[in-house]
């Protein structure tokens, strides 16, 4: 619980809030960090108390291990604080955080709108489970304006899913415009806000449900898998919490504790990695081998004005389009020659990563063609000058 001896966290800076949220306080006797609480069975003093417990199923109240315990509650409070919401459900993976709200709001015969730039496994949910249950999905151009968004909505549309910036290709969506169009028709707006953690406040821009892959910057050390679903309305909380419970979604308290520890340093990591990412992106933008750098914080980005309007900063993940004279095999050879960049999925950790993206992107709405082979870079906590030197030697492997 928050420390009552300090001013309200809403008036404090981000780093201060991360240091104090979800803790017992500063003027207490005990360890700084809350302990790990593990358990399955919860004991009650009598049968009546157990029966009464059912009335608290939407509260932070222990009834059984799958409903969480003190470690989960502390972490949920921290994530809700970061997202600017009221309630948060922590689940085992980022993909689970995508699935739970989709299944909370959609049923057979409903229609879902999904950006063509969405995270691939989110698309797989739509094409697998949802389609099998008679739920139709339409993939739309992520750059739609309010009028185009409104035109996509059908009488049976229940969910307008967003992801901004888009996975791999980093289109920034006009979330307030989409939210206005959706809410005018009673449609829920879901958003994968993983890239924008801290820098984009979803509920201030009309989002109903914010999704985070906490595996990324919150964990920060590439050693836990977690996700979260945060809301700002009691009705949405009941829908999401019920779906999570029915699906048996649960996060290991040990992983939650590791992420709770990781989040304490997230403010400084985000700031450092943002600056390093922009430095590397700007350097790449000036290289003759590069056709385009897909980083929303660069003025050259097509939706830079939207990013500047709605975001307070950027994370360290961006895309690179190489000149069309190169083949994808050339880009893969370049990535193989990098010494400081690992080749692997995920991002948000302390280490830099690089993966090819051409050939790994599924699009069905005619978007995502950038005229050259593409790669995605994540900039970690290494010195940016060292990363630039590594990229420079790797670029030399491209055919002249």
Automatic annotation (TrEMBL):
The modification N6-(pyridoxal phosphate)lysine is found at residue 216. Gene3D superfamilies: Aspartate Aminotransferase, domain 1 (3.90.1150.10), Type I PLP-dependent aspartate aminotransferase-like (Major domain) (3.40.640.10). It holds the Pfam family Cys_Met_Meta_PP. It catalyses: L,L-cystathionine + H2O = L-homocysteine + pyruvate + NH4(+); an S-substituted L-cysteine + H2O = a thiol + pyruvate + NH4(+). The keyword Lyase applies. Its cofactor is pyridoxal 5'-phosphate. Pathway: Amino-acid biosynthesis; L-methionine biosynthesis via de novo pathway; L-homocysteine from L-cystathionine: step 1/1. It comes from the Bacteria. GO terms for biological process: L-cysteine catabolic process to pyruvate; transsulfuration. This is Cystathionine beta-lyase. It comes from Belnapia rosea.
